[in-house]
Amino acid sequence: MRMMIRPIILYGIGLAAAAFLLEWLNYKHLVHRWSTEFYVICIAVICVALGIWVGNRLTARPREPFARNDAAIAALGLSTRECEVLEMLAAGHANKAIARRLDISPNTVKTHVARVYEKLAVASRTQAVQKARALDILP
């Protein structure tokens, strides 16, 4: 919401400046001199320029390629298997699905999940995924 306020205010200032400019140029006098097509073209150019500017401001920038933070993984003491389980948690897989994919028992998955929670100091899957993303462990 906060990001949207600034472009709206700038857009309003731009419209006010355009209205002031038209009044300052004595619009009624210029109407007789120049054709309607001139005004239509001017308004079209202003709208296109404004659209390009707003589109550029609101378009998301491309992200840099993901680089896993191996230092954070080592500092937390996460094993390779725990990282695999964490990736599958982030993908939204249930414990049974994780067990099938990793070819381990569901109880082992529960143990890995509990250790991941403990090492990340969280209490839920959502918190674990959020913290892992904040630490650049997950993309």
What structural class do you assign from the helix and strand content? Answer: mainly alpha
* Alpha carbon gap, first and last residue: 25 Å
- Outline, from the CA principal axes? rod-shaped
Q: What's the number of helices?
A: 8
Report the CATH C-level class of the largest domain: Mainly Alpha
Main sheet characteristics:
none
Secondary-structure element series: HHHHHHHH
CATH topology of the largest domain: Arc Repressor Mutant, subunit A
Strand segment count: 0
Mean pLDDT: 86
Low-confidence stretches: none
The CATH superfamily of the largest domain bears the name: Winged helix-like DNA-binding domain superfamily/Winged helix DNA-binding domain
Number of domains: 2
CATH architecture of the largest domain: Orthogonal Bundle
Helix percent reads over 70%
Radius of gyration, rounded? 28 Å
User: Which percent band covers the strand fraction?
Assistant: under 5%
Q: Could you please describe the fold and organization of this structure?
A:
Helix content is 75%, strand content 0%. The mean pLDDT is 86. It has 139 residues and is mainly alpha-helical. The longest helix has 23 residues, at 2-24. The protein contains eight helices and no strands.
